[in-house]
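job 3f2a | input accepted
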Amino acid sequence: MASVMEDPTLERHFKGHKDVVSCADFSPNNKQLATGSCDKNLMIWNLAPKARAFRFVGHTDVITGVHFSPTGSLVASSSRDQTVRLWTPSIKGESTVFKAHTASVRSVNFSSDGQRLVTASDDKSVKVWGVERKKFLYSLNRHTNWVRCARFSPDGRLVASCGDDRTVRLWDTSARQCINIFTDYGGSATFVDFNSSGTCIASSGADNTIKIWDIRTNKLIQHYKVHNAGVNCFSFHPSGNYLISGSCDNTMKILDLLEGRLIYTLHGHKGPVLAVTFSRDGDLFASGGADSQVLMWKTNFDSLNYRELLSRHSKRVTPDPPPHLMDIHPRSSHRHYAQNGTVEINPIVADTQSGDPQVVEVGRVLFSTADVRSHDVGTSSRDQPISGSYPGPARSHTRPREKEDEHQEERFPDGMTTSAAEHSGIPSGLTSTLENIVQQLDILTQTVAVLEERLTLTEDKLRTCLDNQVRLLQQTQQVDRSDEETEGSSV
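job 3f2a | predicted structure (491 res):
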């Protein structure tokens, strides 16, 4: 029997980031949570009580996006340092660097089969990468301003992207063409994603709105304006029935998409909410914000008679009017505005037994063995020393108050191990040579990216010229025929 106490509850509060938390994602097995921050570090939090957290060091600027691969064996992160890193979530902290963008990378997303990555960048492009061969595949170039976000559809056949040109674009990955454009934004389009069935996309905007489009009919089917400031992020519940959003108004809102209504307003962050994400099973969701907090919440979705729960809530608040049939199965777009009838939740942490986790820093890799044509193989060799760049409760490969044998193994929670002997240093002369090679490769990679963009523009101009030439030729032929007909009639 549902009760008014079965609202979403705040389960855990993770402390470890020293700056704004910008992105978050749960692992497929729901045992870990990855978060990225303006402190340039990727954190992986183990959700088991008293388990250690891991800080991955390698990016040289703000981390903007993070995503687990479908198997959980890799974690991808994007950054303002113009790179994407593929991390192996082990104590070694190994990462492969992808570099072809020429400006900040805003988001990163795996395809459902784990074979491709899609990234969005301030260089106005969306790029697709091959994961297995670690190489750049192709660019999608039609945006006219910074691209904020790009996501694969569940079947991998489409990509949705949005940006500061106030458009949401839909791309066919086979033809590598833009097949649709959704506009009607009063500001930047900040975030975009597909629902679990792949039939709809939602997009959020700096104009405080969330819009849901049916991509089969290309119609706007729902339009919510429930926040009082720009919407930074959102996440679909795996069932597709709910959506949670985070905003610069310091709140999160939970929408019931079947009922077409706002049902919860969640407080807890002391600043803009920049990241929200549901776990793969939908039992949890996490949020991160400008206050450097990472909050983990427990849901009550799809386990209750929701109509009964709403009726019980009506005893303490005034709910929105009952939904009309058009709100549940809309034949045309409709707007939903915030009213003073949603359930307001000011959370208290439910789990008081789990203290702040011990944080272990990893990730000072000197070089990677990946394909140098597609990415920078040694960015992390130029990183600042861990002790100087970021103070933490623990050092990379040491255990406080313990003396370990040189060959003793350290065990990662998922059963992976590494030997201390594997972390031996590289001669300084070789390191210097590698750094010089890396710098040259970095310049070469950026040059190739610029040339690729120019080639694309040249191809477009040539295509336009050919089309114009064909039209002129057709017009000339028509004129010649009319002249011949005129001469024939005069004779």
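job 3f2a | The CA atoms of residues 108 and 119 lie 5 Å apart.
job 3f2a | closed
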